[in-house]
Amino acid sequence: MSVPETMRALSISSVTTAAQARLSDVPVPQVKPGWALVRVRGFGMNHSEQVLRHEEVACDYIKHPVIPGIELVGEIADPSDSGLSRGQRVCALMGGMGRNWDGSYAEYCLVRSSRLFALPESADRLPWETLAAIPETFFTAWGSLFQGLRLERGDALLIRGASCALGYAALQIARAVGCQVVATTHREEYRALLERCGAAKVVLDQEGKLAGADVQADKVLELVGAKTLRDSLKILEPGGICCHTGILGGLESLDGFDPIKDVPNGRYLTGFFSNYPTQDDMSRIYEFVVEHGVEPVIAKVFDFDDLPAAIAFQDEGGFQGKIVVLSEER
Length: 330
Known about the structure:
Layout: E1 6-9, E2 24-27, E3 35-44, H1 47-54, E4 71-78, E5 89-93, E6 108-112, E7 116-118, H2 128-132, H3 135-148, E8 156-160, H4 165-177, E9 180-185, H5 191-196, E10 201-204, E11 217-222, H6 229-235, E12 236-244, H7 259-262, E13 268-271, H8 279-292, E14 298-303, H9 307-316, E15 322-326
Parallel strand pairs: 8-9, 8-11, 9-10, 11-12, 12-13, 14-15
Antiparallel strand pairs: 1-2, 3-4, 3-6, 3-15, 4-5, 5-7
Helix pairs in contact: 3-4
């Protein structure tokens, strides 16, 4: 795999709207100890990158200029001292990627070796678009379900705010494990997709209050966030666990939260922060997807040349599933 001197990338230094997003030619980063160069084959787009473009890029802790993108799949172009092999398929995610150091919105990405994870051989049968839809979304779902909620076969699981890429992934994993899943959504038109992904019951949740209704759960995956957290805790059966993972409701913290009064007796509250993936985590996730025939919900696939259009599609909203961008060999 020959490496060119320049590559195309989206590089930003200030707040960047979809209309302002442009690909430009930049130097391919040079390898150094502790880092490896990856030929990016695809990546999923995340709300985190919207936040960066719309406001966070103005913060001092962001690298300037910066190439966004917190996840990728691709092939090793130059392994440096990583212990990986040239041409080996890998994924990478988090750890400051796309903020403290340049991310995946490019044809090549220089990645910290500690953030590079070899894809298992079983994943070779999956197309790049499927591989690209998995890293951040499925790792967050996996960690929330198994580390946060200690999910087991037969559990009654409520996914609060299930009609998002993370919610669909969690729903598919939980159903494959053998759980009964109740999914909530704020739009009736999302019901059919939730049912296709395996929801045993779909509840329209427009008022943010399910306590007192015919909804009980052993485990609750809270993706709406602080806005509905108190209500979700009331739904739990004795001994149940609520994992706070998402902030779809737009409220990041909860003033006046009293753990003694707001966490019912004999119930448990935890959270999941997706910044610490391991090789074992990523191998198990990809192997699980292959073994159970899980098909990630993909909203739309864009070619890398059309990255500005993908950004516009993301900013318009209203889509269901993961936006994936693929970069073909030139």
